[in-house]
């Protein structure tokens, strides 16, 4: 066999291997399993002008037509709310907190109920120490919404994953409780 024929065979073999290794006729069927999982609840009580003593969230910016004690119009577009909410292991607001949810949500859609979230869980209990950082879109009409877990500190150092939010309870515009199912896919 000549050198030219050998070279052609090697090139053809290389091309075949490259094409066959990148071809996946069934799509991406990878199913990852979380390396750690937590389910926590956070309880948000929006200040409405009459509940200063027990409110855990406040409107800090509103559009020109809004105010700082009542969410604007039907979809609350333009309202910016900051919060410092208790986190519990169950759905009871009066359970002992294991930490605080601290951050903000911005109502960012004019024609639907949606907000953008950026917040941290700051945990300081016998079981967990450290923070977990979250960011993402929160389309309220969906029963389950996924947001990104982008990092953490302490027991959650460099952890990343997905948090599935579910509205567990609401009371008008003043109170809501979120069930947060955190699945870490990168654990250090």
Automatic annotation (TrEMBL):
GO biological process: phenylpropanoid biosynthetic process
Gene3D superfamilies, A to Z: Allene oxide cyclase-like
Residue ranges of coiled coil: none
Record bears the keyword Secreted: yes
Localisation per UniProt entry: Secreted, Extracellular space, Apoplast
Cellular component GO terms, alphabetical: apoplast
Annotated signal sequence range: 1-21
A Pfam family that the UniProt record links to this protein: Dirigent
Keywords for this protein: Apoplast, Secreted, Signal
UniProt keyword annotation of Zinc-finger present: no
InterPro entries assigned to the protein according to its UniProt record, in alphabetical order: Allene_oxi_cyc_Dirigent, Dirigent
Main location, first listed in the record: secreted
Subunit structure: Homodimer.
Sequence similarity: Belongs to the plant dirigent protein family.
Functional note: Dirigent proteins impart stereoselectivity on the phenoxy radical-coupling reaction, yielding optically active lignans from two molecules of coniferyl alcohol in the biosynthesis of lignans, flavonolignans, and alkaloids and thus plays a central role in plant secondary metabolism.
UniProt xrefs under PANTHER family: DIRIGENT PROTEIN
Name of the protein described by the UniProt record: Dirigent protein
């Amino acid at each position: 066999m000549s050198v030219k024929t050998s070279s052609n065979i090697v090139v053809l073999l290389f091309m075949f291997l490259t094409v066959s290794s990148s071809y996946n006729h069934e799509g991406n069927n990878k199913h990852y399993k979380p390396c750690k999982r937590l389910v926590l609840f956070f309880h948000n009580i929006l200040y409405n002008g009459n509940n200063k003593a027990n409110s855990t969230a406040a409107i800090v910016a509103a559009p020109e037509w809004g105010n700082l004690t009542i969410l604007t119009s039907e979809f609350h577009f333009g309202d910016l709310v900051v919060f410092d909410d208790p986190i519990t292991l169950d759905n009871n607001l009066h359970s002992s907190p294991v930490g605080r949810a601290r951050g903000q949500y911005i109502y960012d859609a004019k024609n639907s109920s949606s907000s953008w979230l950026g917040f941290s869980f700051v945990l300081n209990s016998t079981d967990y120490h450290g923070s977990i950082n979250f960011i993402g879109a929160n389309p309220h009409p969906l029963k389950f919404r996924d947001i990104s877990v982008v990092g953490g500190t302490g027991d959650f150092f460099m952890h990343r994953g997905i948090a599935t939010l579910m509205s567990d309870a609401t009371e008008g515009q003043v109170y809501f409780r979120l069930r947060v199912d955190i699945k870490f896919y990168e654990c250090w």
